[in-house]
Amino acid sequence: MTESNRDRGAGAAALDGQAFHLIGVGGAGMSVVAQLLAERGATVTGSDAHDGPALEHLRDLGLGVYVGHDPARVPPRATVVVSTAIRASNPELLAARAARARVVHRSQALALAAQGRDLVAVAGAHGKTTTSSMLAQALRRLGQDPSFAVGGVVRDLGTGAHLGGGAVFVAEADESDRSFLNYSPRVEVITNVEPDHLDTYGTAEAFEAAFLDFAHCLVPGGLLVACADDPGSLRLALTAAEEGLRVATYGTTGVASLPAGSLVESHVHLEVTGRHAQGTQAVLTRTVMSDGGLSTSVPVHLDLGAPGDHVALDAAGAWAAGLEVGADPEAMARALACFGGAGRRFEARGEGDGVRVVDDYAHHPTEIRALLEAARQVVAPGGRVLVLFQPHLFSRTQAFADRFAAALDQADEVIVTGVYPARENQSDFPQVTGAMITDRMRAGRYVADREQAAHAAAAAARPGDLLLTVGAGDVTELADVVLEDLRRRGDGAS
User: Fold this and answer.
1) What pLDDT is recorded for position 65?
2) What is the pLDDT of residue 1?
3) Is 129 tagged catalytic?
4) Catalytic residue from among 79, 84, 129, 130
């Protein structure tokens, strides 16, 4: 047994008597931190510019959250929690700094909530929400009662956060602003190291360097679990192993694909054996490398209720991490088979006039390509795949316009709407619009106004089609607009 956070932090004080105020508490990452801090005994308040389901959920839990930013409502002596999305001009943040209040990043607050637990941190440009959700739900089914904090709702559990009684804490670790470097994990799962967030990092090399820094955050004896199918992740794995870290890899490539003499400790081989609309079948085989040679386990069968090879790959990473924290291989595979998905990950939103509407968080070209490959597996015979896509961040749109166009061109018809700015300002990117993507496409239309784009998508759909609303911004709200148009049309046709 390696030294763990739980061993080092046994008896760590709870947060009773401490107060935290979260600015932007309605965000996916912030809302789960708020819930966990409250479950650790802290008094938690928060504010957000907009109301929504996350605030409603926190109110139901008894937290004092409100809409709007009012410095007068920030409790005295509270630690103020912010994310990178919170601008320096925010009135509550200005007041906190003027009062010399303690201000911490969301990741630092999450680390406080995880005190005394064995942290399993899942990172990567994409796939981390699904992988961390799978791992948390599977370990819960196995009776470990893990704590978890993921950036989406685990559908079968009805929440993205839980403070469990077990030793393990599963957390989605955000690399976008280097905040994942605030953790000290026992296990790290790296789904990929594909360059993103170049507004923060500047270069692909700097992005990869941050992941090596993250590997160095492992507690002594901790394990790095890295996807060998991704070149950046494989480079990380090999470098970390050469530095003496414990490393395991996973992927559809076999052990033979690893360089001769590699110091990687073990490799999980994923072989997809079946693809259909209801899910994916695969076989997992683990090979341990040692001075005595290779030792290969008995193959374990995996039967997932979600389509897509990328989902099976995420399951392989979760399986490998589960074994490290004590799960039985067969039992872990059975538990993963029960995974019902995470919110906004190929989430069915409804049907109207014979058109199925599915919402997905994909906002990187690789994610979109994988999403559309999965969509082809579930679309009705003769049906088409339509996409309503909202780009996320001007900088990402500018950097990856060509790749977005190539990925989206896998669909039969695509409507791209205005860029969701998040933390960025349009004035800093005056020439960047969704048209940068559609100008490079064979079947793309740019409709700047989001409501008009939703109506246009609904009008383009025919019975038997699958229509996807895609993006990390508020495009999820447009699924309801599309469905209303479709159902109204269907009622009129009947």
Assistant:
1) 97
2) 31
3) yes
4) 129
> pTM value?
0.82
The pair of structure tokens assigned to 118 is 């064995």
Q: For residue 382, what is the domain's CATH number?
A: 3.90.190.20
Between these two residues, 130 and 494, which has the higher pLDDT value?
A: 130
**Contacts with 3 (C-beta within 8 Å, 6 or more apart), sequence order:** 219, 220, 221
Kindly tell me if the per-residue pLDDT of 117 is higher than 70. Answer: yes
The angle formed by the CA atoms of residues 375, 343 and 108, to the nearest 5 degrees, is 130
pLDDT tens digits, 148-164? 999 888 888 888 899 99
Judged against a pLDDT cut of 80, whether residue 383 lies above it is answered with: yes
DSSP β-ladder status, 279-290 and 266-276: antiparallel
The token pair that represents 376 in the structure block: 């082809």
Q: Of residues 39, 79, 84, 128, which has the active-site annotation?
A: 128
At 305-314, the pLDDT tens digits run: 888 899 999 9
As a residue count, the chain comes to: 494
CA distances from 426 to 176, 429, 431, 475 (A): 20, 5, 9, 18
118, 190: one domain: yes
Q: Is 45 domain-assigned?
A: yes
| Both tokens assigned to 407 | 């990925």
Structure tokens at 474: 């508020």
- Of 172, 175, 194, 413, the catalytic one is 172
The pLDDT value given to residue 257: 82
Q: Are 378 and 421 contained in the same domain?
A: yes
Of the residues 63, 87, 106, the one at which a domain ends: 106
| Cα separation values, 249 from 107, 175, 207, 246, 320, Å | 26, 20, 20, 10, 8
